[in-house]
Design a protein that fits this description.
The protein has 245 residues and is α/β, with parallel strands linked by helices. The protein has two domains: 121 residues, Rossmann fold; 121 residues, Response regulator (Rossmann fold). Helix content is 43%, strand content 20%. It contains ten helices and ten strands. The protein is elongated.
C-alpha cells in the first residue's frame, strides 16, 4: 500500500514511517504539511496519515483543502498527541476517516490501521456530489465522510460529466438548479450511458416545492427528489437506502 505520512515532529514521523515500512507498505514521509498537501493532491496514495497539530498548516486545514482539491481523495487518518473526550467524533466531523492518539504504540498501531482500513473498505461506497455552492459541498462532504463514504466533488454539470468519464460512483447527489446546466441535464446524460445508467441519482432542491420539478426528475430516472433543508442523519439514511436498494 502506498502511504503518505506527515508530522512536523521528526521522531514521531520517523517512528510512524519505520513501523509502516516494517509492515510492508511503501511510505513517503513529510515534515511539512504544505509540501505534504501538494504531494497528496498530485500523487496517487492509498492512505494518508497526518498529524493534527502542525505549525505551517494544522490537520484541519490540511484535510479541508485536500478533500476539496484532490480529484479522488484517499482516506486520511488523524494523529494527535492531545487526546481528549470527543476528539474522535471531532476528527470524523472534520473529514478524517480515522483517528490514532499519541504516543504511538508500536504493538497496536498495525492492528489499529488494519481495522480502520477494513472498516473503510466495507463502507467505501463513493458519492459524486454536484453543487455550485462551496458551503453546500462542504456540508455534504462533512455529513457523508464520517460514515465511510468517499466523496467526489463537482461544481457543475460539465465537471460532473468529466469526472464520470473515469469515475463510476455508487451514487450521484445533485443540486437541481445550477448555472450552465441543471440536474435534469445530468440525469439525461447518466441514463443515456449504459455504463452509468444503473447509478442511483438523488436530486436536491432548496427552492420552494415544485411538483412539476419533482415529477420531471422522477420521469428522467431520479431515485428520489429531496427538499432542503434536511437533517444530516436523514440525508445519510437516504443515501444508504439508495445505494442499498
Amino acid at each position: 500500500m502506498k502511504i503518505l505520512t506527515v508530522d512536523d515532529n521528526r521522531p514521531s514521523l520517523e517512528l510512524m514511517t519505520y513501523l509502516l515500512r516494517a509492515f510492508g507498505h511503501d511510505v513517503t514521509p513529510f515534515n511539512s504539511s504544505g509540501s505534504a498537501l501538494e504531494a497528496a493532491i498530485s500523487g496517487d496514495y492509498d492512505l494518508i496519515v497526518a498529524d493534527v497539530r502542525m505549525p505551517d498548516m494544522d490537520g484541519f486545514e490540511f484535510i479541508r483543502r485536500y478533500k476539496r482539491e484532490a480529484a479522488s481523495p484517499a482516506p486520511v487518518i488523524a494523529v494527535t498527541a492531545h487526546a481528549m473526550v470527543g476528539d474522535k467524533e471531532r476528527m470524523l466531523a472534520a473529514g478524517f476517516d480515522g483517528y490514532i492518539p499519541k504516543p504511538i504504540d508500536p504493538q497496536s498501531i498495525k492492528a489499529e490501521i488494519d481495522e480502520m482500513l477494513t472498516e473503510l473498505s466495507h463502507n467505501g461506497a463513493s458519492v459524486l456530489i454536484v453543487d455550485n455552492t462551496t458551503v453546500n459541498l462542504e456540508l455534504l462532504d462533512r455529513t457523508l465522510t464520517p460514515f465511510g463514504y468517499r466523496v467526489v466533488r463537482a461544481r457543475s454539470v460539465r465537471e460532473a460529466e468529466s469526472k464520470l468519464e473515469t469515475e463510476r460512483p455508487s451514487l450521484i447527489l445533485c443540486d437541481l438548479h445550477m448555472p450552465g446546466g441543471d440536474a435534469f441535464e445530468l440525469l439525461q446524460h447518466v441514463k443515456a450511458d449504459s455504463r452509468l445508467q444503473d447509478i442511483p441519482v438523488l436530486v436536491m432542491s432548496s427552492s420552494v416545492w415544485q411538483t412539476a420539478d419533482k415529477q420531471r426528475a422522477l420521469e428522467l430516472g431520479a431515485k428520489k427528489f429531496i427538499l432542503r433543508p434536511i437533517e444530516p442523519q436523514a440525508l445519510v439514511n437516504e443515501v444508504r437506502d439508495a445505494i442499498g436498494g
